[in-house]
Amino acid sequence: MNILVINCGSSSLKYQLINMDNEEVLAIGLVERIGTEGSILTQKVEGREPYINKVVMDNHKDAIKNVINALTLGATKVIKSMEEINAVGHRVVHGGESFKQSVIIDSKVKAILVDCSKLAPLHNPANLIGIEACEALLPKVPMVAVFDTAFHQSIPDYAYIYPLPYELYKSLGIRKYGFHGTSHKYVSQRAADFLNVDLSKLKMITCHLGNGSSLAAIDGGKSIETSMGFTPLEGIAMGTRSGSIDPAIITYLEKEANISIEEIEDILNKKSGILGISGVSSDFRDVEKASKEGNDRATLALKVFYYKVKKFIGSYAFVLGGLDCLVFTAGLGENSAITREAICSSLEQFGIKIDSSLNQVRGKEAIISSSDSKVKVLVIPTNEELMIAKETMLLI
Fold first, then answer.
1. Residue 33 class from Cβ within 10 Å (0-12 exposed, 13-18 middle, 19+ buried)?
2. Which one, 90, 132, 220, 290, has the greatest CB density within 10 A?
3. Residues of the chain with CATH 3.30.420.40
4. Is the pLDDT of residue 43 over 90?
């Protein structure tokens, strides 16, 4: 069974074609600058030179058509025809409270996704455009929506309700939703498989650390708490996002610095976090280099990041009532031994101890905890596309 995984942005489209009989990635690709000058498709296949196609793509339907052509025609093809695409799995950012799991897409589902767009105005409309483009070109192929928020719908009400007037939750849906759910779900399942332990018996904290970062407390395979909230801005300090701050700072900036709400939103999302403190970059590699060269602000930025992650790990260990497993994933979590060591260095009181030599791993599954660590510490590379394909296959 071949499943096409689509992740649609406003002007870009990522895709993978996966043979689910053996979970082989047949092709992986990216379409950029849809609807603007210089649109380009890049497709990679194991053992081949990358295929690059610079062609005018006025809209997402054009983009999907070029994706299908790259997969099925000429020297770039990996399948004989589009009939070999058995289903399409779509990444959808926000499912609100309507979707606690992945669903087969129909007109009712699309109507709800339109309503959820007010909660994710930058993402859901683009996701919908991708869905409708695929429906137009592959009308007989089942479509599945896999939501970033669905995995966190198991969080109890006392954890997702904000201490605001309850009517704001009922009328506007203001509550914690959480994000990166597909990643947290995937790595929690892989961690259990890797340890050969029943997932239902594990208390686990997963750390999705990258330019955007979040943590999740997972009890028996279910998310019971996560750091991102109503939006992906809440939680720990990130590459350019502030994470959680005193909300009164917003009104203070508006009054005392005469900064508009739109400017403040831009500052909090794009000019804060590691970039804002360091003044160097949102890329942790650049900040680590600057820190080694004696840049005090870069060092401070890294210390803030490590401290915030530690606070969440400590609090989540108590929320879980114990901890069996700590998992690092995503770009920074998978590849930065410095980050993992700095975070774990003062967590011995929670039974977390890592082995410096084992910790030198990059981008592959490994146990990095020492033999006397009470908590297993793992590196598990995330694979959201495979998780989307699995969810899709399960439904169809």
1. middle
2. 90
3. 2-147, 198-379
4. yes
Question: What amino acid occupies position 388?
Answer: I
Per-residue confidence band for 8, with pLDDT thresholds at 50, 70 and 90: confident
β-bridge partners, 92: 147
Residue type, 294: G
Q: Does domain 198-379 have CATH number 2.40.10.220?
A: no
Residue of 115, 148, 246, 266 marked catalytic: 148
* Cα dihedral 347/349/351/354 (nearest 10): 40
**CATH H superfamily, domain 2-147:** ATPase, nucleotide binding domain (3.30.420.40)
Residue 219 known to be catalytic? no
Across 163-178, average pLDDT: 96
Rounded to 5 degrees, what are φ and ψ at 81? -160, 170
| β-bridge pairing 103-104 and 143-147 | antiparallel
- Which spans in 95-220 are helix H? 107-116, 124-137, 157-160, 166-172, 181-195
